[in-house]
């Protein structure tokens, strides 16, 4: 569509120019051809005007992207700078990438903290980045640095998943890719998986799942699925949901991104009671930011867990005076962001 519109615009520009011919110099056959060309020009011009009109007409305008009537989707996506894995000489954290699946494409970045005692096994953290299901990356500078910091502070072997994003891969790709990453981690529980770091250093009796924004939502879905289906060889101790992206009145964008949705009560956007009752972990930590439009949804998640009598331990931390995902956007080692980080780390270290 982009090429056709561009070509039509080019033709319309040329063919719309008036043609002047001298009847004294032009034979009748030339006049006939000129008339035919002029008629074709008008048809092409009219078609291209309509095509150009379609490229400007908006079908849907959502907070994170715009859909035009010609089918184009324009994501309001800031440039995501992706950086390669690296070794940090200061913290001693090493990182590398691994492929979980070639089709669909799913990969992870693994962070190994400094090993001081090779005989001691490390807890495992699956981290799921945010970005409204259509932005960001596990390989971005922001998320690489944040997960590396958590790995160093909590002394945890962290795995950050690179899942499919809308519009290239609509929802439920984000859920299925993250589930595939969790299963991939579990495949190492017998110490014969494809990654040596997980085989050699992971304690599969202490596994955590965490994420922010969309990643917080996905975290809930994974833990609920573990409660329903189980995950052989792995014990999920806790889940951390930072400013989770749950539904509540403005769900049209999520529903559009998920063509095979179940309507406004889709349990992936609005956690169902039966899913909450069977969360497959022992503890849940939820952060909710006061100046975030999702503030009450995060608080309600914890309230609902306590209301239904979930057998685990649920804790709510309210980030007063803070914006959505402030700890990722700014410096994670300053002020309230440092407080959030240390609470996150303490949750993982808690025995």
Describe the structure.
With 351 residues, this protein is an alpha/beta fold. The chain has 2 domains: 2-56; 94-349, Alpha/Beta hydrolase fold, catalytic domain (Rossmann fold, 3-Layer(aba) Sandwich), CATH 3.40.50.1820. It has 11 helices and 11 strands. Helix 3 (141-154) links the parallel strand 6 (122-128) and strand 7. InterPro entries: AB_hydrolase_3, AB_hydrolase_fold, Carboxylest/Gibb_receptor, Lipase_GDXG_put_SER_AS.
Largest sheet: 8 strands, mixed
Outline: globular
The low-confidence runs, each spanning 5 or more residues with pLDDT under 50, are: 1-47
For CATH, the homologous superfamily of the largest domain is named as Alpha/Beta hydrolase fold, catalytic domain
Overall residue-averaged pLDDT value:
86
Number of strands: 11
Distance between the termini: 57 Å
Please bin the fraction of helical residues.
25-40%
Main features:
351 residues; alpha/beta; three-stranded antiparallel sheet; AB_hydrolase_fold
Secondary structure topology:
Blueprint: H1 2-15, H2 28-56, E1 58-61, E2 65-68, E3 73-75, E4 94-101, E5 106-112, E6 122-128, H3 141-154, E7 157-162, H4 173-186, H5 196-201, E8 202-212, H6 214-229, E9 236-242, H7 252-257, H8 273-277, E10 283-289, H9 295-307, E11 313-319, H10 326-329, H11 335-349
Parallel strand pairs: 6-7, 6-8, 8-9, 9-10, 10-11
Antiparallel strand pairs: 1-2, 2-3, 4-5, 5-7
């Amino acid at each position: 569509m982009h090429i056709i519109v561009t070509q039509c615009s080019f033709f319309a520009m040329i063919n719309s120019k008036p043609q002047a011919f001298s009847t004294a110099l032009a034979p009748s056959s030339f006049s006939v051809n000129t008339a035919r060309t002029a008629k074709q020009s008008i048809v092409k011009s009219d078609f291209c005007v309509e095509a150009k009109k379609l490229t400007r007409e908006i079908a849907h305008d959502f907070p994170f992207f715009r859909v035009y009537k010609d089918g184009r989707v324009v994501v309001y996506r800031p440039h995501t700078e992706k950086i390669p894995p690296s070794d940090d000489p200061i913290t001693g954290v090493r990182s590398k990438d691994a492929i979980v699946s070639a089709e669909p494409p799913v990969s992870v970045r693994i962070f190994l903290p400094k090993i001081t005692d090779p005989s001691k096994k490390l807890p495992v953290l699956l981290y799921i980045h945010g970005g409204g299901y259509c932005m960001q990356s596990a390989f971005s500078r922001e998320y690489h640095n944040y997960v590396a910091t958590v790995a160093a502070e909590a002394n945890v072997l962290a795995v950050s998943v690179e899942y499919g994003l809308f519009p290239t891969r609509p929802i439920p790709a984000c859920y299925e890719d993250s589930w595939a990453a969790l299963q991939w981690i579990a495949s190492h529980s017998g110490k014969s998986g494809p990654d040596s770091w997980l085989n050699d250093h992971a304690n599969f009796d202490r596994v955590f799942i965490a994420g922010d924004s969309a990643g917080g939502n996905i975290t809930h879905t994974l833990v609920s699925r573990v409660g329903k289906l189980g995950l052989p060889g792995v014990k999920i101790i806790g889940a951390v949901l930072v400013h989770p992206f749950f539904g509540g009145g403005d769900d049209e964008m999520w529903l559009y991104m998920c063509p095979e949705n179940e309507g406004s009560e889709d349990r992936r956007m609005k956690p169902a009671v039966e899913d909450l009752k069977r969360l497959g972990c022992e503890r849940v930590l939820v952060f909710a930011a006061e100046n975030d439009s999702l503030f009450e949804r995060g608080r309600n998640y914890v309230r609902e867990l306590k209301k239904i009598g979930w057998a685990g331990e649920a804790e709510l931390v309210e980030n007063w005076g803070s914006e959505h995902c402030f700890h990722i956007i700014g410096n994670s080692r300053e002020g309230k962001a440092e407080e959030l980080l240390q609470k996150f780390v303490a949750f993982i270290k808690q025995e």
